[in-house]
Amino acid sequence: MIRSSTLLVSIFFFVLSAQAHRLAFKTLGFELGESKGFVLEANASGDQKPWVWYAPTLPAHPDRSHTWYIDRLLAKGISLAGCDQGEVRGSPKSVGVFTKFYHEMVRRGYSKKPVLLGQSRGGLMMLSWAVRNPKRVGGFAGIYPVLNLRSWPMKRNLGPTLADFGMDRHAFSKVIERHNPINNLACLAKARVPIFIVHGDFDRVVPLEENSAVVTERYRKLGGEAKVEVVPGKGHQVVDGFFKSTELIEFMIKRSTL
């Protein structure tokens, strides 16, 4: 009876996980403390299985708009995975949870150097982790990513940002530059982690100039490799320019399988 109950719970969680991500694929879900992880397994063999780490992992993300990328990753034996800890903005606490997720993935036989793929606010999640773990990153990829704490987080999403850091606005204003990942890129450049981003030049939600452009400029000055594929006339939206980028998928495949 106990075994039957356990099996039913496991099946329920598996089905719930698959539905939660709204993908056209079945995902494997697992718990990580109060957070939840998922893996879309490519069935790669051997040790150090290649994978792309996607953020934000939330009830609605990733979704079917990512199918074009996922099809091509799976065809190359590259898995997709992510960790849902809610609306986090790169605080030391949330970065610590992501590190636990990373170790769990490595324990499961996945590569110690995944490619990080941050979309919109997921960019801030991934870059905040990357600058603290440069030797654990195979490459950084972005789809109109939030990268600058002083941009969308402070201008349009202050409440969740302050909640993640556990501070009020006055206290956070004193330490924001310390935590802003755009100020901590040197370690990534030194580790020779390449960056590739697709971003629209008509993005009013996450402006190109305040995010991808400033990171690219600073990163190159530090000696790092960075490129932005600018999608002309497009903003923060689901169009082929962002979700069927040949350069982006080639970057992720190359950097995942080194």
Characterise this structure.
By secondary structure, the chain is of the alpha/beta class. It has one domain (2-256): Rossmann fold, CATH 3.40.50. It contains eleven helices and eight strands. It is globular.
Features:
8 strands; alpha/beta; disordered N terminus; eight-stranded mixed β-sheet; Rossmann fold; globular
What is the total tally of β strands?
A: 8
CATH superfamily: Alpha/Beta hydrolase fold, catalytic domain
Instruction: Specify the structural class.
Output: alpha/beta
What composes the largest sheet? 8 strands, mixed
**Share of β-strand residues:** 15-25%
Looking across the biggest beta sheet, what order are the strands in?
1-2-4-3-5-6-7-8
Mean pLDDT: 91
CATH topology: Rossmann fold
| Top-tier CATH class | Alpha Beta
**CATH architectural type:** 3-Layer(aba) Sandwich
